[in-house]
Amino acid sequence: MSARILVVEDEEALTTLLRYNLDAEGYDVETVGRGDDADTRLKERVPDLIVLDWMLPGLSGIELCRRLRARPETRSLPIIMLTARGEESERVRGLATGADDYIVKPFSVPELLARVKGLLRRASPERLATVLTYGDIELDREKRRVARSGRPIDLGPTEYRLLEFFLEHPGRVCSREQLLDSVWGRDIYIDERTVDVHIGRLRNCSTLAVSRIQSAPCAAPATRWMTGLRK
Ligand code: CA
Predict the structure, then answer these.
(1) What does pLDDT average to over the chain?
(2) Domain 4-125 has CATH 2.130.10.10
């Protein structure tokens, strides 16, 4: 699965440039031009990294960053802040608000790409590993094989992708909607309950210590549940 990047930038030319280059690197790119729209989008779906402009209509990048850090779903979301201001005090303020990295406009595209790659690697080394492990569970991406304590486990293709996603994001909780999006893809229409069915199957067929895939009620709305692998 390619890493998903959300670009929040109101300058159209820059958005196009970023989309083109990130896309060429194989990332799954989404763009949004307003801070408040980005806030709404991020409540629905959490990307793997966000490139966030400082000055935005609707809601400033700094304020959005602060809000993201206050929510458990996005507390550790990697954020690269873009800004035209170069003053040291502003940089410090940006980092203090919770951005992981900081790039001053105008910047070179290769530099931004290098920062994105570096930050993704630091944030989730799991994404790049061939063999993912969790306790006694081992998932070999090259051979597409899953084993527990060395004994092979037969998983259906969807259960395999679900497990791969959980192993790539240990400790992260997601809503059904986010799982649907990440595991099934945005363009496929599937009932959210289907996610439960597949998680149930994953639990059964892998005899994963069931408690490791946790389900806990999400704050709102009450009918949504969040699931993830405990770190
Ligand atoms: Ca701007």
Answers:
(1) 80
(2) no
Say what the alpha-carbon torsion angle 99, 105, 111, 115 is, to the nearest 10 degrees.
10
181, two tokens: 């999006």
Q: Tokens at residue 123, please?
A: 């944030």
Other Cβ atoms closer than 10 A to 108:
9
Tokens of 25: 């690197």
Q: Which residue has the higher pLDDT, 163 or 89?
A: 163
Give the β-pairing of 79-83 and 101-104.
parallel
Contact 155, 202 (CB under 8 A): yes
Instruction: Report the residue count for the chain.
Output: 231
Are the C-beta atoms of residues 135 and 209 closer than 8 Å to each other? Answer: yes
Determine the Cα–Cα distance for residues 127 and 199; give it in Å rounded to an integer.
Answer: 21
Fold classified for 129-229: Arc Repressor Mutant, subunit A (1.10.10)
Task: Tell me, in angstroms, the distance from the centre of ligand 1 to residue 80's CA.
Answer: 14
Å from CA of 20 to ligand 1 middle: 18
Q: How far is the CA of 193 from the centre of ligand 1 (A)?
A: 40
- pLDDT per residue as tens digits for the range 9-56: 999 999 999 999 999 999 999 999 999 999 999 998 889 999 999 889
Q: Is the dihedral of CA 116, 140, 230, 203 positive or negative?
A: positive
Q: What's the pLDDT score for residue 112?
A: 94
CA dist 190 → 6, 193, 195 (Å): 23, 8, 9
Same fold, 4-125 and 129-229: no
Whole-number Å distance between alpha carbons of 207 and 173: 21
Domain ranges, ordered by start, for the chain: 4-125, 129-229
